Target: Gibberellin-regulated protein 9
Amino acid sequence: MPAVSIHKKQSLTISLSLIITSCHFPVTIMKLFAVFVLVILFLQALAVVEASTMINNASNNLANRDGASDVLDIHKKHHPQKINCSQACNRRCKESSRKNMCHRACRTCCKRCHCVPPGTYGNKQACPCYASLRTHGNRPKCP
Model:
């Protein structure tokens, strides 16, 4: 009779060891999953810190800038400075041999570009828009 109980103990021990061995694989997966979740949480926390730093830097930059200059920049971009085209074109065309044609072309260019180069000839680098306008024959439009 004692032999039977020893045999049952051994089979019980063997079956328990098989269960523990077969359960070892899922435990390893659980540990890897836990490590994966921790890494993801760490990366998320790092991203939140980075985003808050960027937001703080942006707000500091905006606080340091003058709000009035922003309004002026927008105004200049969308509403170019008004100039007296007649007066500027009179100055530009005063030495032209064909004054009427010069005035007509100059006023058209001035109204489009809101700029007339200084002097009576050349200096078109001062007004790139003025210099870039062309006729249908691809000749410079503005005097």
Summary: The chain has two domains: 1-52, 81-132. The mean pLDDT is 76. The chain is about 75% helix and 0% strand. The helical segments are 2-64, 67-78, 85-93, 99-113, 128-132.
